[in-house]
TrEMBL record:
<dbReference type="Pfam" id="PF02770">
    <property type="entry name" value="Acyl-CoA_dh_M"/>
</dbReference>
<dbReference type="GO" id="GO:0050660">
    <property type="term" value="F:flavin adenine dinucleotide binding"/>
</dbReference>
<dbReference type="InterPro" id="IPR013786">
    <property type="entry name" value="AcylCoA_DH/ox_N"/>
</dbReference>
<dbReference type="InterPro" id="IPR006091">
    <property type="entry name" value="Acyl-CoA_Oxase/DH_mid-dom"/>
</dbReference>
<feature type="domain" description="Acyl-CoA dehydrogenase/oxidase N-terminal">
    <location>
        <begin position="3"/>
        <end position="117"/>
    </location>
</feature>
<dbReference type="InterPro" id="IPR006089">
    <property type="entry name" value="Acyl-CoA_DH_CS"/>
</dbReference>
<dbReference type="Pfam" id="PF02771">
    <property type="entry name" value="Acyl-CoA_dh_N"/>
</dbReference>
<dbReference type="InterPro" id="IPR037069">
    <property type="entry name" value="AcylCoA_DH/ox_N_sf"/>
</dbReference>
<dbReference type="InterPro" id="IPR046373">
    <property type="entry name" value="Acyl-CoA_Oxase/DH_mid-dom_sf"/>
</dbReference>
<dbReference type="InterPro" id="IPR050741">
    <property type="entry name" value="Acyl-CoA_dehydrogenase"/>
</dbReference>
<protein>
    <submittedName>
        <fullName>Acyl-CoA dehydrogenase</fullName>
    </submittedName>
</protein>
<keyword id="KW-0285">Flavoprotein</keyword>
<dbReference type="GO" id="GO:0033539">
    <property type="term" value="P:fatty acid beta-oxidation using acyl-CoA dehydrogenase"/>
</dbReference>
<feature type="domain" description="Acyl-CoA oxidase/dehydrogenase middle">
    <location>
        <begin position="121"/>
        <end position="216"/>
    </location>
</feature>
<keyword id="KW-0274">FAD</keyword>
<dbReference type="GO" id="GO:0005737">
    <property type="term" value="C:cytoplasm"/>
</dbReference>
<dbReference type="InterPro" id="IPR009100">
    <property type="entry name" value="AcylCoA_DH/oxidase_NM_dom_sf"/>
</dbReference>
């Protein structure tokens, strides 16, 4: 799948992570936030925020195999929060805008996001509607040429630094799958307020907050696609989000294994290195094999996506497998660090905390399983 151009991109991203992210991660973790505008501007200058986006709006116009390379390498950061935030910008808040937004809307919001001049956020989850997207309660009622938005969104990555939000809201009455629209909402609009930064188990370096909307007026020209098509567009947007998330896990998991090999090779117990126990080095070999299987699945899903095939099932499988491995690999590796693994600043314990989100965010494991079961025809009433 990969050409010399892919490898050049890989090297660019790898160097960016090593120079611009990893030296600052410990401080950003302590601060509970990283300078998103500053880092996005640097990414934008390198063309890394619009790899698959239209050339007409300052993107590179490349296929998703290049974004796969970007996702893999950004996952080598020494934390999960910063790659997550960047992924929100590239693969969660902007894919629908890039594909279905009007030219005027794309010039106003997509192009600056690609250049790193604006920070984007995605507004779907609510206190009572996480993985169940159809259950959202936020409304955007029609008032002439405007929508008037009321409600709230929860667990919003980039919330305190975002310039705009790609919001999913109910715009009319009717069935839950056809009464929603995606709307671009500038975050400086009157009536928007934020909670304090949420105190999370992991992903500490990315800012997350609840957003409240009180009679927030937004022009209808800010709608992405047709009114009532928001649920469908968000489901399409989820596919790239899930592929990005699964790909982002790969280098992180490999780093956990590599770091554990190094530590277990040095740590002595009962007269030998921990790594010299057959149960330990066999287990690490099993884990590396599982990571390689995840890579193969992600690559297969990406290849199908590039061909324009429906990849809902494969992307859901990759998301499920990635989330499960994030739990299995980090837990197993942490065990071999012994007491050091229980220390807060240990790199594996940070991965253990950060990557627990992978089985929850972007659709919980149980939702992925339901999607896969639908494709298999194994749900009750579908046999």
């Amino acid at each position: 799948m990969f050409t010399e151009e892919h490898e050049q991109l890989r090297q660019t991203v790898r160097q960016f992570v090593e120079r611009e992210i990893n030296p600052h991660v410990d401080q950003w973790e302590r601060d509970g936030i990283y300078p998103a505008r500053e880092l996005m501007a640097k990414l934008g200058k390198l063309g890394l925020l619009g790899i698959t986006k239209p050339v007409a709006f300052d993107g590179l116009g490349l296929d998703y195999s290049y974004q796969l390379v970007f996702a893999e390498e950004i996952g080598a950061a020494h934390c999960g929060g910063v790659p997550l935030s960047i992924g929100v910008q590239t693969d969660m808040a902007t894919p629908a805008l890039a594909r279905f937004g009007s030219d005027a809307l794309r010039r106003q919001y997509l192009a600056p996001a690609i250049r790193g001049e604006m920070v984007a956020a995605i507004g779907v989850s609510e206190p009572g509607a996480g993985s169940d997207v159809s259950a959202i309660n936020t409304t955007a009622r029609s008032d002439g040429d405007h929508y008037v938005i009321n409600g709230s969104k929860m667990w919003i990555t980039n919330a305190t630094q975002a310039d705009f939000l790609c919001l999913l809201a109910n715009t009319c009455e009717g069935p839950a799958h056809s009464n929603k629209s995606l709307i671009i909402v500038p975050m400086d609009t009157a009536g928007i307020s934020l909670s304090a930064k949420l105190d999370k188990l992991g992903m500490r370096s990315s800012d997350t907050a609840q957003i409240f909307f009180d009679e927030v007026r937004v022009p209808k020209t800010n709608r992405v696609g047709d009114e009532g098509a928001g649920f469908t567009l968000q489901m399409l947007q989820f596919q790239e989000e899930r592929l990005f998330g699964a790909a982002m896990c790969i280098r992180m998991l490999e780093n956990c294994i590599t770091q554990t090999i190094t530590y277990a090779g040095q740590r002595q117990a009962f007269g030998q290195a921990i790594l010299d126990n057959q149960s330990v080095h066999f287990r690490l070999a099993e884990l590396q094999t599982e990571v390689e299987c995840l890579r193969a699945l992600v690559y297969r899903a990406t290849a199908a996506h590039i061909k324009g095939e429906q990849v809902t099932t494969l992307a859901s499988m990759a998301k499920l497998k990635g989330g499960r491995l994030c739990r299995e690999v980090t837990d197993a590796c942490l065990q071999y660090w012994g007491g050091m693994g229980f220390m807060w600043d240990n790199p594996v314990s940070r991965a253990y905390r950060d990557q627990r989100l992978c089985s929850i965010g972007g659709g919980a494991d149980e939702v992925m399983l339901t999607i896969i079961c639908k494709a298999m025809g194994t749900l009750p009433g579908r046999r």
